[in-house]
């Protein structure tokens, strides 16, 4: 489990550096609608106060269904603050971003194979084998 958290951290940093990271529920939904084949990985994040947000839970259900239908690996993270520390504010405006949904897209470079993404794909596959379709990952400190 800790290995998956470390891999997710590495993937988020790498994807952001390469410009392959989309943050936000609405931005992610738009991207999945326009170009689902380009989405490589999905992260859904909540904090305790988000658990009662019915609208957010409905969005999560729809995103999860879309990811399952399009063979996109998906994980949950229960610490938006740790995610914000990794991803940081929006580069355009410097404003905090909606980090409830983060998509990692395939870069235009065909040869890019991220070892962290491969580890996470394997982790998700192993989780599905034990009927955990959206595993929860704990990010490292």
From TrEMBL:
Its GO biological process annotations read: apoptotic process; cell differentiation; positive regulation of MAPK cascade; regulation of cell cycle
The answer to keyword Oxidoreductase applying to this record is no
Instruction: State any GO CC term.
Output: cytoplasm
**One Pfam family it belongs to:** Ribosomal_L7Ae
Positions of the Ribosomal protein eL8/eL30/eS12/Gadd45 domain: 7-89
| UniProt keywords, alphabetically | Apoptosis, Developmental protein, Differentiation
InterPro entries, alphabetically? GADD45, Ribosomal_eL30-like_sf, Ribosomal_eL8/eL30/eS12/Gad45
Q: Which SUPFAM superfamilies match?
A: L30e-like
Family from the record: Belongs to the GADD45 family.
Oligomer status and interactors? Undergoes concentration-dependent homodimerization, which is required for growth inhibititory activity and enhances interaction with PCNA. Interacts with GADD45GIP1. Interacts with PCNA.
What role does this protein play?
Involved in the regulation of growth and apoptosis. Mediates activation of stress-responsive MTK1/MEKK4 MAPKKK.
> Which protein are we looking at?
Growth arrest and DNA damage-inducible protein GADD45 gamma
């Amino acid at each position: 489990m800790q290995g998956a958290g470390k891999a997710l951290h590495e993937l988020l940093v790498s994807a952001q550096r390469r410009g392959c990271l989309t943050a936000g529920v609405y931005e992610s939904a738009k991207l999945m609608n326009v170009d689902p084949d380009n989405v490589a990985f999905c992260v859904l994040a909540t904090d305790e106060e988000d658990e009662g947000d019915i609208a957010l839970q409905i969005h999560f259900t729809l995103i999860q269904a879309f990811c399952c239908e399009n063979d996109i690996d998906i994980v949950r993270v229960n610490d938006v603050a740790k995610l914000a520390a990794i991803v940081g504010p929006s580069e355009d405006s410097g404003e905090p971003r909606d980090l409830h949904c983060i998509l990692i897209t395939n870069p235009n470079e065909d040869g890019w194979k991220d070892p962290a993404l491969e580890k996470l794909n394997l982790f998700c596959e192993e989780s599905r084998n034990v009927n955990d379709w959206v595993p929860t990952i704990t990010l490292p400190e």
